[in-house]
Amino acid sequence: MSNPYISGTGYYLPPRVVTNEELSNFMDTSNEWILERTGIEERRYVESGVGPSDLAIPATEQALLAAGLTVKDIDFIIFATSTPDYYAPGSGCLLQEKMGFGEIGALDVRVQCSGFVYGLSIAEQYIRTGMFKHILLIGAEVQSTAMDLTTEGRDTAVIFGDGAGAAIISATEEDRGILSTHLHTDGRYVKELWLEAPASKAGHPRISKNDLDEGKQYLKMNGREVFRHAVTRFPEVIIEALKKNKIEQKDIGLLIPHQANLRITQMIQKKMGLRDDQVMSNIHKYGNTTAGTIPIALGEAIEEGRISEGDIVVFASFGSGFSWASAVMKW
Description:
By secondary structure, the chain is of the alpha/beta class. It is built from 11 helices and 13 strands. It has helices spanning 20-23, 31-38, 52-67, 91-99, 115-128, 154-157, 209-213, 223-244, 262-272, 283-286, 293-303; strands at 3-12, 16-19, 42-45, 76-80, 105-109, 134-141, 163-172, 177-185, 193-194, 220-221, 254-257, 312-319, 323-330. Helix 3 packs across helix 4 and helix 8 packs parallel to helix 9. The longest helix is centred in the last third of the chain and has 22 residues, at 223-244. The relative contact order is 0.19.
């Protein structure tokens, strides 16, 4: 049975930088207010007409180059996003055509902030069974066009940004790679972080003028409830992964949590008793790019030399659903 490991990574952020000061032109906020609550200084926004499949192209090109592979070597595409280019078809299908992949399968995963770790778990199973040798896993989002850039939508609008990260999951016979993945969901909290419209259950049309007037097309979040659950579920699912593999917290080389909010990350670090050098954080530069945060942070960590061969690397996420997940690997 083959072991699944990450053979290459890449990431891409659109060039437009949106600072906290710029957002204060649209809503009642300030740099100090945003920094205090989120730790975010700036985020990236796409230009009109750019979708997550477009952001995924340069990220994929980097990942393929790092892995020493071409599009012809990829057996399967997993595309994690909560903001697909279109309602249908999936963004993985669009990326497949734009980059000239063969007639391989392309699967979209919609688990929002936990999308990349869920996708990693899917890739793990395909590699272990020998079905595929090289899988492209994408986490990409265009959240900026889903934000209510007014004072009413301030609590979510200041948090989210656009970006894409990619990883190639490959098969190896070496003693390395993904050790285990752990997935959880609790649907009782669906309405604490959700996008109500458009919705197929709404009837015809799926979104009405009344829906638009009420702002149902914008992401809604109960920030206090999300924070309360996140600071509990993050440590739980990390410890679950460590116990499964008989690894102690002090032996973590690098924890790469979903970049939801700097305060959440700091709380996780404190609860886990981890040093600063054991935790990756880049939310101050990019905001919350949902399914893109972990692969983007992973790409940056590799560039910065923060991961060495043999290190224990842990991914953890929490988001709408509520869904939370973790993965532990030996690099």
